[in-house]
Automatic annotation (TrEMBL):
Cited SMART domains: LRR_TYP
GO molecular function list: kinase activity
Upper lineage: Eukaryota, Viridiplantae, Streptophyta, Embryophyta, Tracheophyta
Keyword Transmembrane helix attributed: yes
Keyword tags: Cell membrane, Glycoprotein, Kinase, Leucine-rich repeat, Membrane, Receptor, Repeat, Signal, Transferase, Transmembrane, Transmembrane helix
Membrane topology note: Single-pass type I membrane protein
Domain Leucine-rich repeat-containing N-terminal plant-type residues, every copy: 57-95
The name this protein goes by in its record: LRR receptor-like serine/threonine-protein kinase ERL1
Cited SUPFAM superfamilies: RNI-like (SSF52047)
Subcellular location: Cell membrane
InterPro entries: Leu-rich_rpt, Leu-rich_rpt_typical-subtyp, LRR_dom_sf, LRR_N_plant-typ, RLP23-like
PANTHER family: LRR RECEPTOR-LIKE KINASE, LRR RECEPTOR-LIKE SERINE_THREONINE-PROTEIN KINASE FLS2
Amino acid sequence: MVLRNCSEKGACNAYLQVLHYWLKLMDFVAIYLLMLLCFNIFTNSFSKGIPQPSCIKSERQALLKIKQQLKHSDMLADWKARNEDCCRWVRVFCNTVTGHVTELQLGSSKDTIASSRSKKAGSLKLGGKLSPALLDLKHLSYLDLSNNDFDPTQIPDWFWNLTSHLQYLNISGNQFQGKIPDLLTNQASLVLDLSCNNFTGSLPGISLNVTVLDLSNNVLSGSMSQFLCHKKHQMKLEVLNLEGNHLSGEIPDCWEKWRSLVAIELCNNNFSGGIPSSMGALTSLESLHLRNNHLEGEIPDSLTNCTQLLTLDFAANHLSGEIPPWMGERLSKLIVSSFQSNRFHGHVPEQICGLSSLQILDLSHNNLSGNIPSCINNLTAMISRKMSSSKISYNTSKGYFFDNMALMMKGVTLDYSNTLGLIKLVDLSDNNLSGEIPAEMTMLTGLLSLNLSKNHLVGKIPSNIGAIKTLECVDLSENNLSGKIPDSMSELSFLSYLNLSYNNLTGQIPRGTQLQSFSASSFLGTKLYGPPLPTSETPVPASNIVGGQVDNGTKAHWNFICGFLCGFLCVACPVLFTNSWDACIFRILTKLKIKHF
């Protein structure tokens, strides 16, 4: 074929060039696939040529002795002598090179410290006794016996010798008793979870290699001083949980040797005195829980150094003074701040608006006064409707520590852990706040709960409150609010708790909305009318489900009127027509008895 002109010749050259590159690419792909095939054949042959190590005979015998002492249901069904390779037994993990048993995962539920290891069996419970054959597993580094049904007995002395070489020990959620000895011999870093048992006595001494210590929910008593103070070296402890014991005295002011701490839980004890200033040395601290003690005094300024704090829980104490303005400037990472049920006074500082990561602000049940800061819309974490992580976690060298919190929502106090990171809440109730509810509050469009009750707030409910479409709980009761209920409130489709009682609200409750599904007690003590309220001439009966929804919408008020008249006549008539109070009382009791039966 003869090329007719230059343009056709150029097109042909371009075509040949593309074809050339295409052939080179195909050659490269073919070579790559051939190499991949050879590699797979080589590795498979190599792995088949090396036998996997089976367990050590002496360790298999030790496991069988351990099983003999346990009431194990079907959990350890394959722990049998005829199954020679104990490394294949359920809940037993061996070193893949040496064959030594390194882990026994005999717990019945997940640990507090998150682990990527998967369980080999379901959640079953063990009982019986602990066997000293555990000491024959010389290479054991991980032992989990949590949440089982062991007899309520004292831990044998030999058991604590395991801590000298273990890296993880979890015996939480059992009924073990007795005192915990000093644990000073462990050479490796140790995660130690002894929580939710019945241990008594004072806090044990620990070695500097313990990284996580959970002694929560026991019956430990006494002071922290011997445990905490007089340390010569820096301790490696990252998580300290002493919640739910009977510890007392002042929290010692000697935290300088504990700089690795990430989380401290001292809730629900009997501590007194002030918050020690030496806690300011804990610059890695992310979670500090001191709830429900008898602490007093002001928040020390030294906490300005704890700039990594994510959770600050000082609720249910006797702390006083003003909310420190530096919190909004220095603790910029705060997610949770709870100072409820204390004696704080003064204004809510405007600097608190600088906490852009804050999702939970609870300053309820204090003596705060002044206006709600109009800059509250700067709490941008409460604006986003995007779901954040369901948990608030703290990374340690041994895994993740998950935070928990007691919060009041919908009139009920509940503990939140798995969903704490999803809660977005503002609670300023039971203070002496005044002024109007700032319109900027309605810009917090990710809020789940808003509680401003029991203050001296005036003015109208912000007209744009319906913009907070995620709201599930609204409590504005016992204020001096006036005007109508905004029509936009009918747009709150997730609202399941509402209390507007004891205000100066007027007008008709917006009709044709779910507002009619709430109890009439949600509007008690106002000048509102319309369903679910009875007619304006009839008082609204008190209810024990204030704020909650009811199924029938409106309640018939004739039953109330009839009941009232009958009750009145039963009392008034005997008084008017008898000379003896004894006879009067007798007749009333007789009527009640007849009605009862």
